[in-house]
Amino acid sequence: MIKTYFTFCFIFLAASLVSGQVEISVDRNTAIYQPGEIIQFNLEGSGDASYRIFSDRFTSSLEQGVIDLHSWETNTIHFQASEPGIYVCQVYQNFQARIAAAAVAPLSIETKMEPPADMMEFWNEQLAELANVPIDADVEFESSTEYSETYEFSLATVNDRRVYGFISIPKDGVGSYPAILNLPAFGDNSNGIQAPETTAERAGAITVSITIHNADADQADPDAYEPDVITNPDSLYYKLAVLAGVRVIDYIFTRPEFDGQNMAVNGVSQGGGLSMIIAGLDDRVNALAYSNSALCVNHGQRYDQASGFPYFLNQTREQNFSEAQYLQTVAATSYVDAAFFAARYDGPSIGVVGYQDTICPAQTVLTAHNALRGPKALVHVKNLDHSHPNDYWDGRIDFYRRLYPAMLTPPWPFAEIRTGFYADAGADLTTTVGQSVNLTGAVFLEGVANTVWDVDWTVEEGDGNVNLSDSNSRTTTATFSSTGTYLLRFTAYDKDRIDLDGEEAKLITISDYVRVTVN
Q1: Quick one: 190 and 232 in the same domain?
Q2: 56: domain CATH number?
Q3: 273 lies in the same domain as 360
């Protein structure tokens, strides 16, 4: 049965409204709580205000009401959540809305739906079709500087389409570089994409920026995102977008300047979601960076929980789909769900999530992040909306430098060289039932071990009981009750950092995994 979704209609209380605007915040600097704890939203203002607590703007209200605000005191709304998730409180007054968000056990948020059983069979067929299309690269010189050369290109892909973009190559005589593929945010190309020579020069990597549409990089595509039959996985526009990204990687691997092995993908919003999908689909990718990713948990609204942009299930409601079409959409869009592909990627990653993002809800991004199974860092920003701070733009380059040593000496001589965060949970282990194993985790910032940050060990996979002698110590022991394979996560918490603007409270989590086989 199709769930009924509705948006809470705020009550206009004109007779009692005053000229001030209410402000709202949560009572913890990190905005993080555990299931069962009381979340306190603090409000400042006066007069009557309506409020609503929800998972995302298309889901039903978890709580709603009207509060009488007093200017001489901090007014509070209390809410208790029993499950991990992001809980947004929106307060409305004077025809304006303000929001605050609380995260309940954010590293424990999981999807409620399994990926399609034939997901990789479907995609292997698409990749085989792409492989049968010659690349047919059309490359034209664009520009040159002291430190790089840039070319505009187009490549053939499926359905008689082409993918368009720019490639910038460092110019310092080294001749063998890693590569970075920038996947685009949502749009029809009307603003064009920028040639990425700055990244090539300052990072020392071949850098490629592309559009996913069938038009030149500097021209709007009148058919952007069309056709898009969301009830059929073979007719989804995002299938074409993913194949466009894979085709560009094919091309990068033909370039003589490429080192042949170090391939990164990154992007914000739509580009972040596409990066996750491609990283999980294409084994040639060994580094992933993203910010506030779209295309995560496309099925969320089926469970009255947050769904990622472009809100496929909300589209079914707006287009008056039948129940059968609704279920077909649930099934079809699962083939382009970044959370499912994140679970297939076990390489290193770095990401940013804004708790107040209502475009790509934080709960969906965290679901995908939690599915990643390699070394990873995530910047949680308490008051960030659908914006992309320097933690992404600069942080991804720091992250790549640690992975790709060639980037430590870029052509541009004035680059500030940093290598960011890194966690190491140790090598995989083998033991027997009842026999303890030693676990040793370490975390680094700029290559220096940090012994101050809080840490914990958690059991992510495994059927038996696991006894940890001290789950909050870098060094501990684990004993297993039954045979099988177990996955343990080591996480360090860099708390209460301040971003480059000096305003936003943030938490950075740095994790790695160790797999233990118990005989």
Answers
A1: yes
A2: 2.60.40.1930
A3: yes
Q: Which domain holds residue 484?
A: 421-518
Contact 351, 377 (CB under 8 A): yes
Which amino acid would we find at residue 35?
A: P
Provide the residue type at 183 as one letter: L
**240-285 pLDDT, tens per residue?**
999 999 999 999 999 999 999 999 999 999 999 999 999 999 999 9
Peptide bond into 310 cis (omega under 30): yes
Give the integer Cα–Cα distance in Å for 154 and 215: 9
238: left (phi over 0), alpha (psi -120 to 50) or beta: alpha
Other CB atoms within 10 A of residue 218 CB: 15
Q: Which of 57, 76, 105 is at the close of a domain?
A: 105
β-pair type (437-440, 475-480)? antiparallel
Pairwise CA distance, residues 244 & 222, whole Å: 18
8 A C-beta contact, residue 4 and residue 317: no
The enclosing H or E element of 158 equals none
**pLDDT tens across 462-478, in order?**
999 999 999 999 999 99
Q: Categorize the per-residue pLDDT at 346 as very low, low, confident or very high, splitting at 50, 70 and 90.
A: very high
Place of tokens 């809800």: 361
Average pLDDT over residues 159-184: 94
Burial 295-306 (b: 16+ CB within 10 A, else e): bbbbbbbbebbb
Among residues 105, 135, 158, which one ends one of the domains? 105
pLDDT in tens, 396-438: 999 999 999 999 999 999 999 999 999 999 999 999 999 999 9
Q: Is the pLDDT of residue 2 over 60?
A: no
Model confidence pLDDT, tens digit, residues 41-76: 999 999 999 999 999 999 999 999 999 999 999 999
Alpha carbon distance 281, 115 (integer Å): 14
Over the chain, what is the mean pLDDT?
93
Q: Please state, in angstroms and rounded to a whole number, the distance separating the CA atoms of residues 80 and 40.
A: 9
Q: Give me the mean pLDDT over the 121-136 stretch.
A: 98
CA distances in angstroms from 36 to 79, 80, 82, 99, 333, listed in the order given: 9, 6, 5, 22, 33
Residues 90 and 144 in one domain: no
How many domains is the chain partitioned into structurally?
3
pTM as predicted = 0.94
Residues 460 and 350 in one domain: no
Long-range pairs, 310-317, Cβ under 8 A, ≥24? 310/186, 311/58, 312/230, 314/5, 314/58, 315/230, 316/230, 317/5
**Count of Cβ atoms closer than 10 Å to residue 460 Cβ:** 15
For residues 226 and 347, state if they share a domain: yes
